[in-house]
Amino acid sequence: TLIALNSSGFATYATDGAGLEVVGRAEYDVNNSADSVGGALSIRVRRGVFKYLNSSRSSAAYALAAGNVGQLCYVENEQTVQIAAGSTDKVIAGVFLGLDTDGKAWVDTRLALYESAESLAFTQTQDAITDDSGGTAPTPASGVLTIAAISSTATAANAISGLIAELNKVKADIAALKALL
User: Fold this and answer.
1) What is the pTM for the complete model shown?
2) 35 pLDDT exceeds 50?
3) CA 47 to CA 92: how far, in whole Å?
4) Phi first, then psi: what are they for 11, rounded to 5°?
5) Which long-range contacts (CB under 8 A, 24 or more apart) does 56-63 make?
6) Under a CB-based contact definition with an 8 Å cutoff, are residues 33 and 15 in contact?
7) pLDDT value at 56 more than 50
8) pLDDT tens per residue across span 117-157
């Protein structure tokens, strides 16, 4: 069962609801409904790689597929994960690692609490590359680095500086991810 923290810091079943942050999988069930204040009982939650149901909503846009491996996946309910399409509050379940032969999704929940969809995406630092003819290469999509043939030394230096800046960002992101694991 996927467990999240609510805005008050209490554990609750993960849902696609505002203010929730997934912390992992419950190791056992706890019923604290009789406690009017909250916090009378505690629950053990484990982070790691676990198998959850893949969305079976009527639209295939919700279901995770092989092409989504390595992407963030989102909570549909405490037992089910989905791809971002249609997710109302986009509560991150973790990183989708693949489908099992039974169609269930393997999810790494260790990054769910620390990452958001925006922070995992790489962004470009240069909007466009100008070539020697005065023309401009099209702006690549976010996270895509385009390397073009460059004949001028000044333009090459600018492109290489941009490339080095992007590589330094990747290096920092990898170091941050290693620290979380």
Assistant:
1) 0.61
2) yes
3) 13
4) -75, 140
5) 56/80, 57/82, 57/86, 59/85, 59/86, 61/85, 61/86, 62/86
6) no
7) yes
8) 344 433 334 444 444 444 444 444 444 444 444 444 555 55
Question: Are the C-beta atoms of residues 23 and 112 closer than 8 Å to each other?
Answer: yes
Rounded CA gap, 52 and 79, in Å?
6
- Over residues 85-100, the pLDDT tens digits come to 666 888 999 989 999 9
* Residues ≥6 apart with Cβ < 8 Å to 81: 2, 52, 53, 54, 55, 64, 73, 74, 75, 93, 94, 96, 105, 107
Q: Note whether 93 and 107 are within 8 A (CB).
A: yes
Annotate the chain with DSSP letters as a single string.
-EEEE-TTS-EEE--S-TT-EEEEEESS----TT-SSS-SS---EE-SEEEEEEP--SSGGGS--GGGTTSEEEEEETTEEE-STT-SS--EEEEEEEE-TTSPEEEEGGGTTT--HHHHS---S-S--B-TTS-BPPPPPTT---------HHHHHHHHHHHHHHHHHHHHHHHHHHHH-
